[in-house]
Amino acid sequence: MRGSKFSSLPAPADVDIPRTRHGDWATIRTLLPYLWEYKGRVLAAIACLVLAKVANVGVPVLLKRIVDSLDRETAALAVPLALLVAYGALRLATTLFTELREFLFAKVTQRAVRNIALQVFRHLHALSLRFHLTRQTGGLTRDVERGQRGISTLISFTLFSILPTLVEIALVSAILVARYDWTFMAITGGALVLYIAFTVTVTEWRTHFRRTANDLDSKANTRAIDSLLNYETVKYFGNEEWEARRYDESMQRWERAAVKSQTSLSALNIGQSAIIAVAVTLIMWRATVGVVAGDMTIGDLVLVNAFMIQLYIPLNFLGVLYREIRQALADMERLFSLIEENAEVRDRPGAPPLAIRGAEVRFEQVDFSYEPNRQILFGVSFTVPAGRTVAVVGPSGSGKSTLARLLYRFYDVGGGRIVIDGQDLRDVQQTTLRAAIAIVPQDTVLFNDTIEYNIAYGRPGATHEAIVAAARLAQIHDFVAALPDGYATMVGERGLKLSGGEKQRVAIARAVLKAPHILIFDEATSALDSRAEKAIQAELRAIARNHTTLTIAHRLSTIVDADEILVLEAGRIVERGSHAALLARDAVYARMWRLQQEDERRDPGGGAAGDSGPVRSAGVPATGRTGG
User: Fold this and answer.
1) Per-residue model confidence as pLDDT tens digits over 150-200
2) Do 366 and 234 share a structural domain?
3) Is this model's pTM higher than 0.70 or not?
4) 277 phi, psi to nearest 5 deg
5) Which candidate, 354, 356, 360, 357, places its Cα nearest to that of 563?
6) Which residues of 600-611 are buried (b: 16+ CB within 10 A; e: fewer)?
7) Distance CA 58, CA 245 (A)
8) 297 and 392 within one domain
9) Closest to 526 (Cα-Cα) out of 610, 624, 625
């Protein structure tokens, strides 16, 4: 039986991962302004880099003079003391300027990483709800993490390895041309060109394997996080092995890409080592011939040998650096592509703040579609007068919750407009709009922090007394006070340590603490049983008093006191009026009312059974709860 459940898994296959639209040079140009913010430090670091390499190249030159000053008669005592002191000073200067360079540039690197990470974080929050409904959190966070690491890699390898090596090659080449036969420079230059060409060609060929492995790593990480976030659902259906197979499918594809990446790396390393070995051998052969012929001294042989060691050791590492830089650029492409993701909802240039003069809300012939071929709202028009309550009821999928999303301007309307005190939402600043509204959502998701933190999220910086006052209004204070850690109790991932009713009351307290002009109750008591719902209804009415309130409800008993009730069906308002007027009309609303009354008579204690949250297992007495 269970074997058939896994038979639909596709066979693992290699995939071709397309590159992002950012080019390497475009990526570097995007990064440069963040570095140039500290141009003084950058220039000072580059100066230290050049001085360190001048000192480093000077060491073999002094070593040649020391060796040439030795002979059988004078031996070591005849070596000029100044040469020995200068040799030691150059050795010290090399280290001193290298460390000073890193000291100067450390703040530049870390600040650039910090600023870019902050910009990406802010931009992700600025993107529309549509983007976040389609994103995969695991892959997104991995892209951001690798992109930040790529910035550090690119900056440190370029400034601390690539640029110093290029400076050293230039200095050594100048000395070889000035002092020795052209063959030394020909061998050295030819080896450098061949080495770089080979490294670039092979690295370009194998970059695809690295990019594929990284993309598959992100997919596996996304799949793992999604499975763990839905732990309870996995356990409900006994699908642990199914999830393991899906995860292993991604890991198998990653494994193949990673193996190809590693084997191609081995081939690259062998080729690089062969080029270096041949070049060093030819240089030493040419220097030995020169010494035998009397054209060069023993000191010249030592000098040339030291130059080759100084050049080829970092040059050998240059292959690794090039690969890492290409990978860093690929990772940064993904990061910067997030910054380029266009925000669907933007403030207009010079948009003024929302001016509240009473908080009247008006929907005027509003049309809206999530997708072009699936319209949700059709010509919806209604007004919520300042300080009044309007309720919206209707079957699932009729567009009720869409009204709240549009009022928050998570999306822009497709037709018509929404105005608050005569101001079109598209003409005012989003931050001031959302500051004027508070919502108690149907599905309350909490931060993995304390109860106090989650309530205080409505108004960061609120005093403990204000938080307690809001909790009392939401009928959750007694429950929290009875917990061993009180308001410091951790609620767990997405608030899973609390029952649905308790999470909803935390959301009510959070909305109360925000002290908004406009309130939205989106099925605000859907997770409460009937008894708890009745206990909190009076508080909700008190909270809504003197607020402009839009209530989205399923249970009609919760909105009988609304100033106006709208009945929404298939995105259209089919009825409107007070509770009594709609019952008297004996149409859609009246039928819904009769059906719910019959359900309540059959199940008088019905409602959400949300009283088994894990927090209560810690010995909390039943009297410490207000239902939930």
Assistant:
1) 777 777 777 677 777 778 778 877 887 777 778 888 888 888 888 888 887
2) no
3) no
4) -60, -45
5) 360
6) eeeeeeebbebb
7) 61
8) no
9) 610
